[in-house]
Design goal:
By secondary structure, the chain is an alpha+beta fold. It is built from 5 helices and 5 strands; from the N terminus they run βαααββββαα. It has a domain of 108 residues: Alpha-Beta Complex (Ribosomal Protein L22, Chain A). The longest helix has 21 residues.
């Protein structure tokens, strides 16, 4: 069997000044979604990471359209992940001549897109020609149904008669 290779397009943003843990929370929301749906989710997400991930997503779509002649709205986010980048270490003055270390984390955001595989529509089924035998057959005799019961008389009718 011949294997069909799916074309994959990606975009990476490196050294983004954002905690990887916070960015992963947002990336989980778009993984597996179509591009228009992912854009909508990111537009209504209030986290700061959503703005950065939206930039990477739009970059990946632009790469697909410019370099691979794909339609942006027909793509799906196949993979989206966040890797840790280097941590910048700074110092802050504390009481009694001491210092406290401040960690400023960075991350690398990667978004991969693939084209949706659409199956061709199945052909419409052809109506079967009706055979003459089917038309000539008589319907089978129905079993005699039990006689229907009448609804019980209402109390008002009984009171009116008495």
């Amino acid at each position: 069997m011949a294997t069909v290779e799916r074309q994959e397009v990606r975009a990476v943003a490196k050294w983004v000044r954002l905690s990887p843990r916070k960015a992963r929370l947002v990336v989980e929301h778009i993984r597996g979604r179509s591009v228009p749906e992912a854009r909508t989710v990111l537009a209504f997400t209030q986290r700061a990471a959503a703005r950065e991930i939206e930039k990477v997503l739009s970059s990946a779509v632009a790469n697909a359209e410019a370099n691979h002649n794909l339609v942006g709205d027909d793509l799906v986010v196949s993979a989206a992940y966040v890797d840790e980048g280097p941590v910048m270490k700074r110092w802050r003055a504390r009481a009694r001549g001491r210092a406290a270390r401040i960690h400023k984390p960075t991350c690398h955001i990667t978004v991969k897109l693939v084209e949706v595989e659409r199956e061709p529509a199945p052909p419409a089924p052809e109506p079967e020609p009706q055979a003459e035998e089917k038309l000539e057959r008589k319907p089978a005799a129905r079993k005699a149904a039990a006689p229907k019961r009448k609804a019980p008389a209402k109390k008002k009718e009984e009171e009116a008669t008495t």
